[in-house]
Hints:
The chain is of the alpha/beta class. It has one domain: TIM Barrel, CATH 3.20.20. It has 14 helices and ten strands. It has helices spanning about 5-15, 40-55, 75-85, 110-130, 150-170, 195-205, 225-235, 260-270, 295-315, 315-325, 330-340, 345-355, 360-370, 370-375; strands at about 20, 60-65, 85-90, 135-140, 145, 175-180, 190, 210-215, 235-240, 280-285. The strands form two sheets. The chain has an eight-stranded parallel sheet with strand order 1-2-3-4-6-8-9-10. Strand 9 (about 235-240), helix 8 (about 260-270) and strand 10 form a beta-alpha-beta unit. The longest helix has 21 residues, at about 110-130. The protein is globular, with a radius of gyration of 21 Å. The chain starts with a helix and ends in an 11-residue tail after the last helix.
Amino acid sequence: MSDLAAVKAALKVQRIETPSWGYGNSGTRFKVFTQPGVPRDPYEKLADAAQVHAATGVAPQVSLHIPWDRVDDYGRLAQYADGLGVRIGAINANVFQDDEYKLGSVTNADSAVRRKAVDHLLECVDVMDATGSRDLKLWFSDGTNYPGQDDVVTRQGRLSEALTEVYARLGEEQRILLEYKLFEPAFYTMDVPDWGTAYAHCLKLGHKAQVVVDTGHHAPGTNIEFIVALLLAEGRLGGFDFNSRFYADDDLMVGSADPFQLFRILHEVVKNGGFDEAAGVAFMLDQCHNIEAKIPAVIRSVMNVQEATAKALVVDLDALRAAQQAGDVLGANAVLMDAYNTDVRPLLAEVRAEQGLDPDPVAAYRATGWAERTAAERVGGTQAGWGA
Ligand code: PSV
Ligand code: MN
C-alpha cells in the first residue's frame, strides 16, 4: 500500500491491546522494584490503561489475567472500563501459580489436578461472558524438566481432552487463543513448545481455536515472520503477544531490541490481510516494565508498533511483486529496505493531529499530571504486581 490517504486511514483504525499486568510492579526472580502510584486493584489498572488510550487513540482494549484481576463483579468492572473509554480484551487464564501445578496443570498425571485446572479455564469463560470479552488466551507452563519424567504423548492427550472441554463451552463469537513457548518454566519439554504443536491442537478443535504468537517465545534466530505468514495464510493467526527479547523471554518494550524484526513481522501481516477486521488478529502487548515508568513505557510500546506498522504500510507492494516475479533479488530487497528506512514519525504526527491528538503521546501523557496525582493519591493498600 503506498497511497498516502489509505496508509493514514489504516493507521487511524489500528488497535493495540495493552495488558493489565503491564501497569503493576514486576521484576525478575532477583528483585521486584516498586514504583510510586502503581495501581492497587484492577480498577486502577484500567484507569492507567485509559491514560494510554487517551494519549495514543489506538489502545481501547485491556487484557486481564485471572486470578490477578479477580473481582467480585465482572459486569461492574466492564461498566467501569466503559466509563473510562476502554473495554475488556482477552482473558488470560492462569494455571501456573498454584502448588498443585508443580507437575503440570491440564497435563498433570493426577486427574484431580487436571479437573481443578479445567474448572479455572471454564471460570475464565464465565468472566468473558460477564465482560463481553471475545478471547480466552491460554498459555500452559506444563512440561517436564528431565528426560523420562513423563510421557510426552500421554501429556498431549490430556491437553487435548482439556482443550476439547473448554472449546465446547465457548459461545458463538468466543475463541481460544493458544499460546506456545519454547521453554520456561519447564526446561526439558514444554507441552506446547512451538507453533506446530499449537496449530495441531487448534486444527483438531475447530475454527474458534487460533494460535497466538508471543514474540519472546522462540529459539534465538527463529524466523518469526515466516510463522506469522504461514498462520495467516492458514487462517489460524489469532493474535500477538508483542514484546522484545535479547536473550530469553525478556518481556521488554516491543520494538526496542529488534525494530527490523517487528517491521518484517508487520510486513507479513499487511501483505497477508492481517489488518482486515475479518482476519480477527488481536494485536496485544505482553510486557513487564521492571525498571522504567509503566504508563510511558506502554505508550512507547504502542508507538513502536505504530511506527513499524506505518513502515510496513508504505512498502510498495506492486513494485515488490514485480521484482519478485522478475527474480530481481536485489530490487525486491531494496523495495523493503526503502520502506524500513523511511522516517514515518512525521506521518504519524500528522495522523494524530488529524484525530485531535497530541502528535507526541508521551509529552501529552506527562502534561496530564497523572503520574504525580496517582503517586499522591494511591497510598496505602497493596500495590498490584506480577502475580497480583
Ligand atoms: C508466559 O510467558 C506469558 O507470555 C503468557 O502470555 C502469560 O499469560 C504471560 O506471559 C504472563 O505475563
Ligand atoms: Mn505471552
